Amino acid sequence: MSMTRRAALSITLALPAALSLPVSALAKPAPGFAVVDADGKVRTLEEFRGRIVVLEWVNRACPYIQKHYNSGNMPGLQVSATREGVVWLSVASSARGKPGYWGDGRKAKAWMASKGSAATAMLLDADGTMGRAYGARTTPHMFVIDKTGAIAYQGAIDDRPSSKVEDLKGARNLVAAALADLHAGRPVATPWTQAYGCAIKY
Amino acid sequence: MRAFLAAVAAVFLFAAPALAAPVNTGHLEAELVARDLTIAPGSTAYLALRQKIDKGWHTYWRNPGDSGEPTRLDWTLPAGWSAGDFVWATPQRLPIGPLTNYGYSGEVLLPVAITVPAGAAPGPVTLKARASFLVCEDICIPEDADLSITVTVADGTPVADPKWGQAVAEALAAAPKPAGLTATWRLEGGKPVLAVAGAPLKGADMSGAWFYPFTGGVLDHAAPQTADRGPDGLTLTLPPGYAYESGKPPAILDGVLTVGDKAYEVSATQGPPPAGVSGLGPPPEARAPTAPASGLGLAAAIGFAILGGLILNLMPCVFPVLSMKAAALAGHAHEPRGARAQGLAYGAGVLVSFLALAGLLIVLQMGGAAIGWGFQLQSPPVVAMLALLMTAVALNMSGVFEVGSSLQGAGQGLASRQGLIGSFFTGALAVAVASPCTAPFMGSALGFTLGQPPLVTLAVFAGLAMGFAAPFVILTFIPALLALLPRPGAWMDVLRKLLAFPMYGAVAWLVWVLSQQTDAPGLALALMALLLAAFGFWLWGQARGARRWLQLAAALCLIGAGALALMPRAAASGPAGTPQAASAVDVPYEAWSPERLAALRAEGRPVLVNFTAAWCVTCQVNEKVALSTPEVAEALKGANAVYLKGDWTRRDPAIAAALAEHGRAGVPLYLVYAPGAATPRVLPQLLTPGMVAEALRDAAKTGG
Q1: In terms of residue numbers, what domain contains A148?
Q2: Which of B97, B101, B217 sits opposite A192 (nearest CB)?
Q3: Which of B140, B175, B210 is the last residue of a domain?
Q4: CA-CA to B328 of 20 to 30 Å: which in A97, B544, B640, B664?
Q5: Domain-embedded: residue B506
Q6: Does B191 reside within a domain?
Q7: What is the ipTM of this complex?
Q8: Of B673, B647, B651, B682, which is closest to residue B443 (Cα–Cα)?
């Protein structure tokens, strides 16, 4: 009798704790930002409320970025994602004078054009405010924000941490997987991974 | 036979390392090196990837941290051969802006186990591998190298590679391994708390404790990890990474734990912590080779040691010996050459005794004993023997007996061999009695020697000896100063007999010290030893070098006294451990223990800690003039503070550890903990009531 009562008690005690835990996603609201893009326009997270947003930290001097752009892997994903209504924001957080710093938005636009980038915008975060707010560590470091403004995925672009183009074959693209889950209304199966790449040059 | 010939060829004809060539990939030099020149079929051989990385650049550990990529080796091996994963060396933390990476700089060897098939044909075999590095400075560059190494398969015991054999063996030995540690983790306030216990951590140097997780994303690599030590291990509160934030923490938290200069592989399961992993406070900062915990360089430590030695001459416990020195000096004042010889002999006595003590300290610490300065007075037989020795000196000064013709007699045989030996032992005696008085400057100089190589310890102790001996030696070398002393005469005998009384005082003090360490029967034994010794010396004096039977009886008495003095044993518990009212005013205190301190700090109460010992005269003086005063008693009450006393009269590893944590090797040490403050305020070694009261008031203020 007392055993049952104790068991019942422990269940009622444990239940709220279990409920308060996020089930699978990070369930962290994405930090807001206001950053000038390559066209000189201030972009905020607010303006894309209700849409899926992908953030991609980028540094043109980084071999990992070169792997994913020169192979067409990243632009390809940008094309397919934006075609389905996703907002794709590339973010450059390299500080002034550090590798990957743009300085002039026109240079960024020219680079995007030369690589076939289909990103919605390139945000120039030279003071690193946005990068630090998101805890972005590497280039590339990917974030997928769902329609409610919560971070649904953060981490690596794929599951083959390497700078070699040949490793793209057979790699599972984790951003594509997260987007597919969101489009299908499923919880994101892999909500986080360890990002790989070059350190962001804050 | 062919295998044998191959081995002979490899070893005797070439006597060169296994054939391999370093490849420069741009920012590092890579090559495969071998532990063994010959390897036997069916055995496991060890090769290693050697990286010599350009200055300012680095490569990565198995978990590269916030960015980067681990070094990789893809083998092309003959059929039947296989290669294991790297035996990863302990990584370094590489901070870059707000991020932290785990990796290597400079030269690093990463060993790899190679399994040789049983059917491997004897003779040379070339093993090939493609090494992939991500080498980063401010920018990152992927660099590859096609490496190969030719080893010789031969039966029998492997022959070590002459060039790299030892380096690979050392890298294997130094790599972190599981060491039978018990490890658990649990969530506390949203943070994973790692608790590790086991024999290798018992009383170990835990400076710079850090946990390097094997997988990324589990922890925030750049955030600080806070450590708390315990007698058997430590607790690390870790910054959670995505794994914990997502609510799906790893079942097993595994990685490498570094403490001091050691590193262990740790695999923690979720659960309550093992016993003895907390309560002793955070370990000292990592002791970098160039910046010791006390912040002292070697030259500064020696400088402080010399200064501390000088000050020792003024300490109360040295006074009786000083009086002896004065008596001896007055006797030699007007014979400069003889005086100089006496001075040098005394200096030599001081130096030799200090170095002998240092040697003993080093040997005992190497043996793992948790001891510090003053350890020699923690043993009852040693204290009893010292009391006996002081009694002998005092009786000699009183004129009860003479050694030789006239040891300290004026005017005759000043530079005689016996006189010099007498001076030498005066120096030794001075050291024996002075050692428990860690004068203020000596505290940090001696603290510096903890955990230092033996030569450094010896250098610091030599500095101490020089400072201690300097005043007397200098005096004997300056005739002008010596001339100031009065001429020898009948007054000398009076002075000598007068100065005997401070020596009796020293005996009384040592007996009191003994009373704190041993029980009543032990004390009775020591007093009987003193009585027997006094009788023996009187008999000896009566014999006057002529009556043999009296001399024999005296010798028997002295041997008996020595034997008795060795008998007192340390009491298991005694007056030293029980709370008692302080003598001057009633300042209540509790016994210090790491657990009690942690509990009080957790309660948010200010704490005054006094590490003391009966044999430490500085401590006793401080208790009398500062701590046991109405002013301090009121300040304690006003601050709602608790007064904890750690008594080091008897050996206590927990107190030794607490002293070491604050860079000290001996008592006294006074600490005031303000509520919520991470580190205590260290009070000076010479206290005033106002000083203590003010520190307590400040602590209460920060708390409020």
Answers
A1: 23-199
A2: B217
A3: B175
A4: B544
A5: no
A6: yes
A7: 0.74
A8: B682
